[in-house]
Design brief:
352 residues, mainly alpha, 3 strands, Tyrosyl-Transfer RNA Synthetase, Rossmann fold, binds tryptophanyl-5'AMP
């Protein structure tokens, strides 16, 4: 009795539709953890979305649709606290406080910032926002998201590992300077996934235009998978292992993506059977693509159905957002007030 429940927190930006990287890097773990007795906080990072939009888009509508996709995937607003980042504006206050102790050099080494910087150096007229203060501070806001609910675990894909490490770092620095105030989360596990894009690029991502989406219908799935580049000669595998982490990196990029997806979606024996064909250098890519497309379509079908279910409406989402904003606010305010006190400015007088 009295033992503290494990706290889980994670978020996703409302950038259009959810893709397979989001699902297997993050949502899959959200679903698993929702079934345990941990306290789960899953949110839509609409403030963060503002760092990347190139022209005014309807972030609000994207947020609602993203939440309908969350529900369609099986996330349950009764078991997890599902909310919208901007409904917890005290996160921005915590980010401001944490910003006071965050070194700029540290932020300049952030991957998101560095990527944007190098893209702008290649093409100064590149679309999108300028190199903004908001983009530089992206990891600080993310640290605030994590620390504000006193998270223990942050299920994310491998691309977000560095951001979680920065949050840990900022929290440790805070505690060192102002006394034990913030709860330190655990680092992201080594097994975090980085799903490559359909074009063979290192990462599947919305801005890379190389995604396979959860709401893609059968025809789109087939078209996208058939277009994956498989004309390169197979490279020999220097291992007898079936372990995807061992063999897939030895394949040409496009082929590797197909195997990675097959391993995630199909029964193990189907994956092994196709691995055998690869080793024997049979001509089989057409069959592999059709088999994979079938598994993807079967995976998507119930999600598409639940997405379009009249019960999974805008009104339903708005109702649980309002309710959950009320549930998470007192938890978050406790952290912000503790930080204010620790830093010496004292409690907010209007919140009392
Ligand atoms: P975002 O919206 O870019 O991605 C959401 C989640 O999907 C994972 N992901 C992937 N995983 C594996 N392979 C891929 N190709 C792939 N693409 C995306 C991401 O790792 C992530 O888990 N900064 C976050 C949102 C955020 C957040 C937070 C997350 C804001 N505050 C606090 C956790 C905690 C982001 O941009 O995710």
């Amino acid at each position: 009795m009295g033992e503290k429940k494990e706290v889980i927190l994670s978020g996703i930006r409302p950038t259009g539709r959810l893709h397979y990287g989001n699902y297997f890097g993050a949502i899959r773990h959200f679903l698993r953890l929702q079934e345990t007795d941990a306290r789960c906080f899953y949110f839509i990072a609409d403030y963060h979305a503002l760092t990347t939009i190139s022209e005014p888009e309807n972030v609000f509508e994207e947020t609602i649709n993203m939440l309908r996709t969350y529900v369609a995937c099986g996330l349950d607003p009764n078991r997890a606290i599902i909310y919208r980042q901007s409904d917890l504006p005290c996160t921005a206050e915590l980010a401001l406080l944490l910003g006071m102790i965050t070194n700029i050099g540290h932020l300049e080494r952030g991957t998101t910032y560095k990527d944007k910087l190098s893209k702008l150096q290649e093409d100064p007229k590149a679309e999108g926002n300028p190199l903004s203060y908001g983009l530089l501070g992206y990891p600080v806001l993310m640290a605030a998201d994590i620390l504000i609910v006193r998270a223990d675990q942050v299920p994310v894909g491998d691309d977000q590992r560095q951001h979680v490490e920065m949050a840990i770092d900022i929290a440790q620095k805070f505690n060192h300077r102002f006394g034990e105030t913030l709860h330190i989360p655990r680092a992201v596990g080594r097994d975090a996934l980085r799903l490559p894009g359909l074009d063979g690029a290192e990462k599947m991502g919305k801005s890379e235009h190389n995604t396979l989406d959860l709401l893609d219908d059968r025809e789109t799935v087939l078209k996208k998978i058939r277009a994956v580049e498989t004309s390169t000669d197979p490279l020999p595998l220097h291992s007898d292992s079936d372990d995807p982490d061992v063999v897939i990196p030895q394949m040409p990029a496009g082929v590797g993506v197909l195997y990675r997806l097959l391993h995630l979606l199909a029964p193990e024996e189907v994956y092994r059977d196709f691995l055998g064909k690869y080793r024997r250098r049979e001509k089989f890519y057409g069959m592999l693509k059709n088999t994979l497309a079938e598994h993807v379509s079967q995976f998507n079908a119930p999600i598409i159905e639940r997405y379009n279910d009249p019960a999974n409406s805008r009104e339903f989402v708005l109702a649980f957002l309002r309710e959950n904003a009320r549930r998470v606010t007192p938890i978050a305010l406790e952290t912000v007030e503790a930080c204010r006190e620790a830093m010496g400015i004292g409690h907010s007088l209007y919140r009392a």
